[in-house]
Amino acid sequence: MWVIEEVHLLNLSVAASRQGQGLGAAVMRWLLLDCTTRGAQSMLLEVRPSNRVALHLYARFGFEHVGTRKAYYPAAGQTREDALVLRVRLPVPGALVLA
Ligand SMILES: CC(C)(COP(=O)(O)OP(=O)(O)OC[C@H]1O[C@@H](n2cnc3c(N)ncnc32)[C@H](O)[C@@H]1OP(=O)(O)O)[C@@H](O)C(=O)NCCC(=O)NCCS
User: If you classify domain 2-9+21-89 with CATH, what class do you get?
Assistant: First the structure.
């Protein structure tokens, strides 16, 4: 979802049977490159603090914790889980190098 120069990533999912094969990283690499090329200055997303795999993936691509949304996600029973808000600043087009 584009909001002026910021892209809000609403969902990133790999089929359970194909997880852990590099597809999530490949999609993220393509998304960051595409958004940078199209002039986005940053990308924002929410993630559960308990989602270690996703946190690892986002950290690899330079996302940093910039805020917390309290009780954002439904959790077990009637409880709720916070969302960590992560953001990465994107380079100017042409200067992007992704490992
Ligand atoms: C999070 C998700 C998109 C990652 O996609 P993926 O294709 O499984 O991830 P990749 O294979 O590209 O691996 C990315 C990194 O996570 C690590 N990783 C992947 N699966 C892992 C696992 N089960 N346990 C520990 N580390 C794992 C990989 O080693 C890799 O680390 P590296 O960059 O240091 O090598 C995917 O697991 C998923 O769809 N999960 C359910 C939905 C979800 O939680 N989406 C994110 C919501 S914010």
Answer: alpha beta
DSSP 8-state symbol, 18: G
The predicted-structure confidence for 53-96, as pLDDT tens digits, reads as follows 999 999 999 999 999 999 999 999 999 999 999 999 998 876 66
> Candidates 43, 53, 69, 88: which one to mutate for ligand 1, based on the most atoms within 8 Å of Cβ?
53
Classify residue 79 as exposed, middle or buried by CB count within 10 Å of its CB (0-12, 13-18, 19+). exposed
Looking at 26-93, which runs of residues are DSSP E strands?
Answer: 42-47, 64-74, 80-89
Query: What tokens does 72 get?
Result: 């954002």
Counting Cα atoms < 13 Å in the Cβ hemisphere of 32 gives 25
Q: Cβ(73)–Cβ(23) under 8 Å?
A: no
Separation of 49 CA from ligand 1 center, angstroms? 14
Q: For ligand 1, atom 5, which residue shows the shortest CA distance?
A: 24
